[in-house]
Amino acid sequence: MNIPELLQQLTLEEKAGLCSGGDFWHTKAVERLGIPAMMMSDGPHGLRKQDEQGDHMGVNDSIKAVCFPAGCATASSFDRELVERMGKALGNECQAENVGVLLGPAVNIKRSPLCGRNFEYYSEDPYVAGEMATYFIRGVQSQDVGTSIKHFYANNQEHRRMSSSSEMSERTAREIYLAAFERPIRKAKPWTVMCSYNPVNGVYASENKHLLNDILRNELGFDGVIVSDWGAVKHRAKSLKAGIDLAMPYSADYEKQLTDWYEKGLIGEDDLDRSVGKLRELAEKYRSAVSRRRVTMTEEQKHELAVRAAEESAVLLKNDDDILPVCRDKRIAVIGGFAENPEFQGGGSSRVNAKAAQTLCDCLKQLGFNADFALGYMIRYNILTPFGIRYAVETAAKNDCAVVCVGNTWLTEKEETDRFSLKLNPAAEDLILDVAQVNPNVIVVIYAGSAVDVSAFEGKVKAILYMGYCGEGANEAAADLISGRVSPCGKLAETFPKCLEDTATAERRGNGYTERYPEGGLVGYKYYEYNGIAPAYPFGYGLSYTTFRYGDMQVKKLGKTDYYISFSVQNVGRHAAAEIVQVYISDDASMVTRPKKELVAFGKKHLEVGETCTFGFKLTERDFAYFSPVLNKFYVENGTFTISVGASSADIRAELVVRVHGDAPKAVRVHRNTYF
Ligand code: BGC
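^ thats the input. predicted complex w/ beta-D-glucopyranose below
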C-alpha cells in the first residue's frame, strides 16, 4: 500500500498514536495495516537494550553487550575507518537483537570541559565531531540498522539541561554547534535525528520551527524522522507543528493533545500526515532490513575490535627519558583500584552492561612481565577512598617502576550533572605523590572521559598515559601500550587546560534559565589561542614511541577557492607507529573576528620504521569561509590565507600562504562582527 492510500485508511487516533511511542523503547504498531513496532536502544558506544523495565538514565539492567571506547576516546584515534568498523560491529549487534535504530552518535560540542556527558561526545571541534559521526553512521547503517544523531542541538551542559536556554549568535551556531551536525546529516544521511531537551535562543528545541523545519529539513535536506529526546516534548501538538515526527517515550497525553488540537482546528491533517508518512518510511526500512538480517560477528571478534580501538584511542601525554615502553626485564609495581577494576565508561543512558575488564597485572603478566599489585585506594560507592597506602608505597619501592592507575568514576562523569572540578579525586592524587617519593619511575595511567587537570602530579612523574573511557578492552590495551607491543598514536580531540580558571566557561553556570555563549565561535583551542592562554596539552597533541619527519608542503590551485595540498611524512624513529596529521587554515587579515586557526582536514597513516608516505588533501570554499548572518551564507573574503600542517595545533611543521579569490568584498556591513 502506498502512503496516500495508507493515510486514507488510518483513523485520527491511529495517526496520533503513530506519532508517539508504543512504550518506552518501541514505536507503535498498526497491525491491521501491517505497520510493525520497531525497537530503539541506546547507544552510542555499545548496545543498551532493555528487555525488562525501561529507563533513560541507565538505572535498570540491560542485556550484556560489548562496550567499545566512548566518543571521547574514539575521537582521539582520528581514525575514520576504525570508527566505521565499530559502527558496523554495533549495527551487527543491533541486528542480532532486533533493534531497528541505535540512539547515537552524540555529536554535541565540548564547550566546557566540565559537561557531564563529554565522555559521550567527540570533540570541541566541529570538523572532528562531524567526521567521526559520519563514519559511525555509515558503519551502523551499512548493517541496515538506523542511527539517531543527537542531541540537536546546543546541549552543551547537563546542569539544568531541561530548562537552560543556550543563547548564541547565528554565526556561532552555524560555524560551531550546527556544523557538527551538518556534515554527517548531509554526507551519511542518518535515519533519524534526535532533538535536545534544552531551548535554543529561548525556544525549546522540540518546539523550534526555525531549527527543525527551516534549517534541518529545508537547508540540510534531512528527510528522515525527527525524534524527540526521551521526555523532551512539552506540548505534543506544538512540537508536531515545529517538526517533531515522533515523541518518545509513550505518553497518553501526547495522543490526547494531538487529537484535541486537531478537533479544535489548531493542527491540520497535513501536519499529521507529514509525520505519519515519515514514520511509515522508517517502518518500511526496518521491515526490509529484518528480512535481510545477517549476524556475522562473534563476541570474540567484537571484543578484539574493542581492544584495538582502545589502543588507537589512548593518548600519551608525557614520556620523560623514554620510560615507556617498559622493557620485559623491568619489574613493575601496578598500583590502584583502577588497575583491578577500571572505569571505562561514564554514567547514564549510554552505560553498557559489559563484562569487566581484565586486570592490568594479569594483562602485563600475559605479556611476560614480572608485576606486583597493590590497591592504594578502594572504589567504594564510586568514590575513591584511601586504602592500603603503606603497602602500595612499599610495593612501589621494591620495583623498577610503578604504574599508578587512576581516573574518574561514573558518578563523576555522567548524564544529568556536570563536574565541578577538572581535578582527579584527592585520594588518587595523593597516592601518585606518595609513590613518586619512593620510586623515580612513575607512570600514571588515567581512565576518564574528559580533560583532567594533572598539575598536582605532572612534575613528579615520568609518564602519563591517558586512556580515556576506552571500553572493556581498557587494560588489555594499556598493557599492549606499556609493553611497546603497540605505540600510542592517539591525539587529543579536546584541549587539556592547565586549570579550570583558564577555560572560557569557568565563571559561568547560567541561572538555570539562560546560558549565554559570549565566547562565540572561539571554542576550545580557538579560545585559548585567541586569548594567548597556554594549555597543559593542546588540541591535537599526543606523543609516540617513534619520531616523524614532515617534508615540505606542495600546493596546487584547482579553482577560485580550491586547492590541493600534499606533503610527505617519514617514520625516522625506532618503532612502527601511526601518525595523525592536521591541516589548519588562518585568514591573514579578516574584517571580522576569526580564530587564529581552524582545523579543516586530518589524516592518519601507519608507518613502519623508515617508511615514508604522502598525505594529500583537497581544500574547498567552505574551508576558507566564515558565516555571514547578513548574507545568510558562508562567505569567503578575498585575500591571503595561511595553510599550516601540524603534528598538533601547537606544533606546526609546514606553512604556506595562498591568495584566495573569494566573494568580492561587498559593502562593509557584510563584515559586521557578529561572533559574540
Ligand atoms: C538521553 C538520550 C537517550 C535517551 C534514551 C535521554 O535521557 O538524553 O541520549 O538516547 O535518554 O535513553
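The mean pLDDT is 94.
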